[in-house]
Amino acid sequence: MKDAAPQTVYLADYTPFGYGVEDVHLTVRLDPGKTRVQSRIRFAPNPEAQDRDFFLHGEELTLLWAKIDGAAVTPQLSDQGLRCTVPDGPFIWEAEVEIAPESNTALEGLYMSNGMYCTQCEAEGFRKITFYPDRPDVMAVFTVRIEGPHPVLLSNGNPVDSGEGWAEWHDPWPKPAYLFALVAGDLVNHPDRFTTMSGKEVELNIWVRPGDEGKCAFGMQALKASMRWDEEVYGREYDLDIFNVVAVDDFNMGAMENKGLNIFNSAAVLASPETSTDANFERIEAIIAHEYFHNWTGNRITCRDWFQLCLKEGLTVYRDSEFTSDMRSAPVKRIGDVIDLRARQFPEDQGPLSHPVRPESFQEINNFYTATVYEKGAEVIGMLKRLVGDEVYAKALTLYFDRHDGQACTIEDWLKVFEDVTGRDLTQFKRWYSQSGTPHLQVAERFENGTFTLTFKQRTPPTPGQDEKLPQVLPIAVGLLSPSGDEVVPTTLLEMTEAEQSFDFGGLSERPVASVLRGFSAPVVLERAASRQERLFLLAHDTDPFNRWEANRALAQESLIASITGAEAGPDTAWLSALLEVVKNAAQDPAYRALLLGLPSQSELAQALHQRGVTPDPDSIHAAAEAHRQTRAELWQADLPMLARETEVTAPFRPDAEQAGKRALGSSLLAMQSRLDGGAAAQAQFDGADNMTAQLSALTSLITIGAADSALRAFEKQWRHDRLVMDKWFGVQIAYAPPAMAVEMAGLLTEHPAFDMKNPNRFRAVFGALAGNHAGFHRADGAGYDQLADWLIKLDAKNPQTAARMCSAFQTWRRYDADRQARMRAALTRIADTPGLSRDSTEMVTRMLG
Ligand code: PHE
Ligand code: ZN
């Protein structure tokens, strides 16, 4: 953890390990302060490797003894691992180490959470459990014996045998150490079964702490739906007799795809109507699917090295997005994904942390589980599929599974499959993996003699380490509409490969209106000087649901920017009237209408201003957004009650897309209503709510208008026993606080008896919310920056991974005025200068300051 000089690892330096592992036997004797791990590993020289240096990773381990072929050896130890002289041929390595799970606050390796033992090994946590070649290209069959006085003892694979105080597990599928898992505790299960497409019976379990058994049914249903979907859509069947899911309260990420034993942050699996919002249900369904889909894309076919992380993550995110589109509404899912991409990936790719989808160097791999690797990585798969077509994509995936099952692969392997299936050369396409930054796409149009010409120019601004950019392959989906709103050219895919390129559409009797980048067919910043009239036309007539939404989004952004910069006194009321007509159309999906009511976030507006060369002022952005919402509510006043009635759900609560859509629209309307009635409707909804979606949206409406004191007290009293609901209580008070109060509110809440900095969910509830309160965090006096820096420094000493991730709240610092920049730079420098700062946070702040 506390290396003197952090080392940089390069993709170009990859060499295979000198030894292969035949099999691994582990015996783990559990004890909070003195857990003993005994290993027996059969090694054999790897014929593919030159280097015979026998180095095993190991960190924070006490070595008790080691033997080779039964004879005691004395390896050379360092704080990274050990080195030993070994025989020329195959040999057996045995060792015993001692570790202390109770004092592991980094939540990596073997640790304890509320009295239960659990592990987290991705990416490099197995080296904190025993000495091992902890790299994904070393794959082995594991047999694990667990000893401890716990009713439930779990590991990967199938159960072999068990007795009083012990259990043995065997995983027949060779796997890298990062997929190892072990769980022990006083847990209860929600059991079920699944019959696979070939008729095999699989036992399914969701394991939780006693008291949480009522919150498993939804996750189980999502798991079975995912298993069926992967069979039907990708032809992938489950491959063990049992599939276990465990919920833990203390977890750095969302969930982990350990073979046959997925471990979940309890926030990403536990659900009930009373305690979870519709958004929570949708996220849980997606994460269950994501981890399950990893069984093939990640586990059966894994990554050669951590630079290839997007091989499993981009593809698996893409697969879970297809699943959600099939289970729910495809356009709604797509719009949500683009909102998220712009909120999280674009700032990353346009700032100091920008890196390629496949990075070429790192100091700490944990810092590269990013929106770029995951979400941009998924966009790249989506583009590839758009370019080759659905059928060819399906063929390529079948070939990928056939050819690479059981292997640790690279992006080259992945692209070669597509080249072999299509006969295409994907050399240029591969730039999506190596070139960082968001391409900007300019569009110009011309109409002459019945021919409409679109001319595109692409340009990617320089990013750290990459000054020159080459043109990328851009799939641009385009449709043309006649001035009366008929579609004269249906969606057509243009394939742009040059820096500048034109495309003609002939045989047109009148000048059409172009709908460009339908479905957001490439992750670019579209620069199009469309007129307000044209955008209003597309909002009314575009047949592509994404682009109708996008036209409205652009109108919203233009209107807000005009008031921020003082170009207009208030919102564009003609547009707001047109939008109201669309929102009143009862034939439209309520979820889609709710999306039309969303405004660009204040951070997104700051980025848009910055891109136009205007220094964003967080206070004016906040004021303009508030004024906009107030005007809109007043303008639509007469229609709100009727619209609200339409969103009422009378049937019993179901977390499906249909009901969720109605509630989402209802929540937006309630927020508007609250600005007019002093919160009466919101208070009534809060008092009568029988589900968390209704209760929480009422609460946030009340906070926004400053009328939530009694509701917040009632909420706390009702939910103080439920950690996940209390995370919401902590978060909303800060996220929706008036900017001038956000820092004080966060400070106050850290004194609350239920604040626990060691629990990542709770820490994020408070400080993620602070960073998300744009004008509150960017307070002119720098108090937001100082407070976050103070807490990140404190957290770093306990949990470097979560601290480092949250440092990215500062990544946009160069957007702002000189005074704010200086204050953010000072906060970052203070973090950087902290004695003993982790490698994780050191790398993050250095890149941001660099
Ligand atoms: N591999 C996990 C996923 O995407 C994420 C993860 C990474 C979890 C590292 C824990 C630690 O599903
Ligand atoms: Zn994943």
UniProtKB/TrEMBL annotation:
It catalyses: Release of an N-terminal amino acid, Xaa-|-Yaa- from a peptide, amide or arylamide. Xaa is preferably Ala, but may be most amino acids including Pro (slow action). When a terminal hydrophobic residue is followed by a prolyl residue, the two may be released as an intact Xaa-Pro dipeptide. Gene3D superfamilies: 2.60.40.1840, 3.30.2010.30, Neutral Protease Domain 2, Peptidase M1, alanyl aminopeptidase, C-terminal domain, tricorn interacting facor f3 domain. It comes from Thalassococcus profundi. Its EC number is 3.4.11.2. This is Aminopeptidase N. Residues 98-179 form the Aminopeptidase N-like N-terminal domain. Residues 219-432 form the Peptidase M1 membrane alanine aminopeptidase domain. Residues 533-849 form the Peptidase M1 alanyl aminopeptidase C-terminal domain. It is an enzyme of class 3 (hydrolase). Its cofactor is Zn(2+).
